[in-house]
Amino acid sequence: MSNIKNAFQNGKAFIAFLTAGDPNADKTVEYILEMEKAGADLVEIGIPFSDPTAEGVVIQEANIRALGAGMTTDGVFDIVRRVREKSRIPLVFLTYLNPVFHYGYDRFFEKCGELSVDGIIIPDLPFEEKGELAPAATAHGVDLISMIAPTSKERIRKIASQAAGFLYIVSSMGVTGVRSEITTDLGAIVKEIREVTDVPCAVGFGISTPDQARQMAALSDGAIVGSAIVKIIAEKGGQAGEALAEYVSKMKAGVCAAREAQKSL
Which domains does the chain have, with CATH numbers? Predict the structure, then answer.
């Protein structure tokens, strides 16, 4: 049974992303645990891939660094094993179809189940084709998390009605990366989702400031931050722990502010 629901038990979740193996496996374990202590409710772990088509330059470069340092899918599983020795925080993989296919669907999800990986996001897997992975994922208690983009208008209800874990709402067109302004009508997307499911939904792509986190969490059930975190790791390398903790704490405060404002209504 997936642990993802626990990330949203207080009503709003702060979700942090980092790339496994950047700068190395030991630091990835350390940074996941540091972000949990600072307030992250769920951590997305990127499995490095040579062609991450949905990612902007910051995460692309993190993939290159991790692969260059020798990170493999088995190495990522070992990172999860080490995290699980100390933490039950909900963990979700973000990867592309190719690494999962080459590892073998059944073998991959069996390993996820053994290590309590709670979910997986695969940006290049079309919703209509998720059936080839769903049986293996479901058999091992792994939620196949769907993404809803601004271009999904005609399909929002269909995607949402089959949601598992949480729904990842893409805030803007294009690839991941920091944005100064998010103009998509996210409220309308969330309204459509709410009419067919009570599965939580969180907004990602472009969120980097506590105020943006507050705004996105006010519209949905949480905020997802990746590029801004990966950028701190790129700049600080093996000494990023303190800066990550400070940043995550501020972003979580933004999410909590949205929760408190909602309670007061």
Answer: 4-263 (3.20.20.70)
